[in-house]
Amino acid sequence: MAAKRSSSRKATGGKKRTSRAPARKATKRKAAARKRPAAAKRAGSGLEALAKKIVRMSQGPTFGPDEIRALYHPDAVSVEANGQTARGHAELEQKMKGWEQMAASMDAKARNVWTGGGSICIEWDSTVTMRDGRTVQLREIAVHEIEGGKIKSERYYYDPGALGAAHEETSQAE
Predict the structure, then answer these.
(1) Class for domain 36-173, per CATH?
(2) Integer distance in angstroms from the first to the last C-alpha of the chain?
């Protein structure tokens, strides 16, 4: 019996273990982690890389046709909180032109970024300087559905009233 205790203590780093159950669970978890397919690991890291790219490009000084083509699928659909919908690169470019007519500048910070299941969710805190001189605090959630490494669809959740009359006028003009 003494030999068993001794070998048991060696296996646990000299600590006496009263039950074998925890050791089995840990072993099963390690085995499950090793069995995760390499493709799943790559898919997760690909989403994370794309999420970082979205954040970086969204915080850049401009967001024009080159950025749209780099991030968006040709048939992408973008839905704003006020219901305005843009389909495809050309309409996304028009949407961005409308934003530039309404906002003079924007300082955007990604508070949280989540990836998984082919989706990227970003919680944004932004300070927007409107063309009429007002400064607006805007909090929004962006949900991006990814296909083939590009944004296939996206939805934005925020209070459209925070942007005021300028946002409604821009939406109605389109």
Answers:
(1) alpha beta
(2) 84
| CA neighbor of 90 nearest in space, from 102, 77, 105 | 77
Among the residue ranges 52-61, 135-144, 164-173, the one predicted with the least confidence is: 164-173
State the amino acid at position 54 in one-letter form.
I
pLDDT at 69 over 80: yes
**Token digits for 143?**
């949900």
Q: How far apart are CA 90 and CA 129, in angstroms?
A: 26
Give all strands (DSSP E) within the chain, no chain letters.
72-79, 85-87, 103-116, 119-130, 135-147, 150-157
Crossing angle, helix 165-173 and helix 88-102, to 10 degrees?
A: 140
Distance in angstroms (rounded) separating the CA atoms of residues 60 and 62: 6
Residue ranges of the domains in the chain?
Answer: 36-173
CA 21/CA 1 separation, integer angstroms: 20
User: Dihedral of CA 147/151/152/154: which sign?
Assistant: positive
Burial profile 140-151: b = 16 or more Cβ within 10 angstroms, e = fewer = bbbebbbeeebb
Q: How many CB atoms lie within 10 A of CB 168?
A: 13
User: What pLDDT does 163 receive?
Assistant: 87
Q: Record the pTM.
A: 0.69
